[in-house]
Fold this sequence. Notes:
The complex is a heterodimer.
Chain A: E1 5-14, E2 17-27, E3 32-36, H1 43-51, E4 58-63, E5 66-67, E6 78-81, H2 93-103, H3 108-121, H4 137-149, E7 155-159, H5 167-184, E8 188-192, H6 195-201, E9 204-209, E10 212-217, H7 219-224, H8 229-234, E11 241-244, E12 254-257, E13 262-265, E14 269-272, E15 275-279, E16 282-289, E17 292-298, E18 307-312, E19 315-319, E20 322-327
Parallel strand pairs in A: 3-8, 3-9, 6-7, 7-8
Antiparallel strand pairs in A: 1-2, 1-4, 4-5, 9-10, 11-12, 12-19, 13-18, 14-18, 15-16, 16-17, 19-20
Helix pairs in contact in A: 2-3, 2-4
Chain B: H1 3-9, H2 11-36, H3 39-42, H4 58-66, H5 70-100, H6 103-118, H7 121-135, H8 140-165, H9 168-176, H10 181-192, H11 194-209, H12 213-218, H13 225-234, H14 238-262
Helix pairs in contact in B: 2-14, 4-14, 5-8, 5-11, 6-8, 8-11, 9-10, 11-14, 13-14
Amino acid sequence: MTYKLQLQELEKKFGSKTVLNKLSLDVEEGEFMVVLGPSGMGKSTLLRTVVGIENLDGGKIIVEGEDVTRLPPHKRNIAMVFQNYALYPNMNVYKNIAFPLKMIGESKDVIDKKVNEIASILKIADALHQNVTTLSGGQKQRVALARALVRNPKLFLLDEPLSNLDARVRYDARQELRKLQQELGHTFIYVTHDQTEAQSLADRVAVLHNGTVEQIGPYDDLYEKPETTWVGSFIGEYPMNIIDGSVIGREGSQIGFRPSWVNEGDDGIQLTVQLCQAAESGFFIMSTMDGKSITIRVQKRHKIGSTMKFSLRRYNVYTDNRLVEEFGK
Amino acid sequence: MSVNSSWKSNLPLYIGAIILSIIFFYPLYVLILITFVPAPLNNLSPYPPQIPPGFTFYNIIQAYSALDLTGPVTRSFYVAMMVGGLSLALGIPAAYGLNKIGVRTANKFIIFFFLINMMPGIVVAIPISVEFLKLGLSNMYGVALAQELVVLPLSIFIILGGFRALPRDLENQARVDGANLPTTMYRILIPMNRSAILVAFLLSWMTSWDEFTYAVIISPVKSTFPVQLYNYVTRAVSFEASAFALTFTIPVIIVAVVLQKYLKSQSFTGGLSS
Lengths: 329, 274
C-alpha cells in the first residue's frame, strides 16, 4: 500500500547533540498517529523537519510518494499547529484563518465561504471579528486548528496542541479533535508527552527514544508487550516492573510485569511493603527489590513495613533489554 | 498604597525631573528670548536679560523675508527622509539576518557596527568627502549616505531588539501557512515589529535633521538647515538665526512627542527581558 508520509532514516544534530538518529516512520492515509516521548527527545524537532522549518542532516521525507526533503515549507502543503498556537496578533480571527487561503491566491468569495464553514464546524463563528489577543486558551486553540484545516493540506502536524489548556477544556478538546479527524478523514501526526492523549486519540503510537522510533503500534500493544524495557517503563501510569530473571529461575535475563499481573499468595516472591496506596481497582504496594522500585496491585490492604508474597500470573522476558518471550498471556 | 504616600515617595523623582527639565529647556528659553526681544534691548549686555524686557515679531518677520528659508528646510527634509528610509531599507534586512545567526555572533557584529561611531565624526568625514567628491556625491545624496553611517548601527540594534522580542514560531507559522519570505516580512514581521521600526526611523530622521559635521564637510554650499544656520550665525545675523533655529526645533518637538509614545524600553533590551 502507499503511505501518506514516509520518513526514511532522518538525521538531525544540534551541535554535538544528536536529536534524530536514523528515524524512520510510515504513516497511513487517514491515520491518527501519535508520537509519544519524554520531553527533550526530539518530538518537536521531528515535526519541524517534516514541515520544513528545520533542515535535516540526512534522510528523506516523502509525502504522497513525492520527495519533499528539499522543498521550502510554503511549497510542502503541510499544515502545522504550534504548541503556543502562533496566532498572528496583528490580525483578527477571520484574517488569521483566511491567511493560508490568501497565500494560495483564493478569491475573496471562496475565502469567505471556507472561513465561515470551518468557523462553524469549530464553533468559533461568533468570534470571527474579535482580536486574537482577547480569546481564551480554548478559543485560540480552535482558531489555530481552523487555520490549519481551512486549506485542505496533505498532512496535519500538531505539536502538543492541548498542553496549554486547563484540564476540563483539554478533555473536551481531545474528544472533539478525534471526532473531527474521523469525520474529515485527514491524516494527523500528533506529538505529545501525555499518555492519556496518546491512549485516547491514536490509531497508532510511535514511541520516541534517543532520536529514533523505539516501538510503534496501538497503545494497548505498547502497554502489554513493550518490545524494550525502556518502553515498558515509559508506558503506563505505573512503569512496568523490571526485575532480575533469577528470581523465577530465568538466569541471564530480565522479567517485566505490570502491577496488575500478579497473584497474592503464600509463596512466591517476597517483598517488604514500603507504601500502600488505595485506588479504585485495589491497593498499590510499592517496594524495592535489588535497588529497583516495583509496584504491584493487590486486593487487600497491607501495613507499611510488613512482608508479603506474590506470584506472577503473567510476565514478559527480556534479554539485553529486548522482548524475547511472553508468558501467561 | 495610598495616593498620598506614593506621591511622597516619588517626590525626589519629581524634583529630579524638574531640575533636568530646566537644564534641558534653558537653551530653548534663551533662543526664545533672543528671537522675541527687540534687538536693541538685547544688545545692551553681553548676555541676554533673563526676564524679557520687551516683545517683538520683527526678528521673525525679518528672518523670513530677508533670508532663504525654504531652500535649506526642503533640503534638510529630503536628506532626513532619505536617511530614515535608508535606515529601514538596510536596517530591516540586516536585523532580520542578525536575528537568525544567534545572539552571540549577532552581538559581535553589532559591536563592530558601532565602532565607526566611536571615532570622531570629523576623522571619518574627511576621507569620505574626498571620495564622494570623486564620485560626484558632494550633494544631498552624499550627505544622506554619510549620515547613514551614524544612524545605521543604532537602527539595526533597535530593529533587532524588536525582532528578538517576537515569538520565533510566528514566522515559522507564516512559512507553514504558505507565505514565502518577502510575504512573511511584509505581512507578519514588519507589522509585528512596527514600533521598533518606527522608533528607528524617527531617531534616524532626527539625527539627520540636526547633523552638522558631515553636512558641512561634504556639501558646504547649498546645504542643510544646520549648515545654513551656522553660516548665518557666523555672518552675525544672530537674531534672524535665532528665529530660524526656533522654526527648526518645531519638527524635532513633534517627532519627540510621537517617539515617546513608542519608546518602550522593550525596543532597547534586545528582547531579552521578554
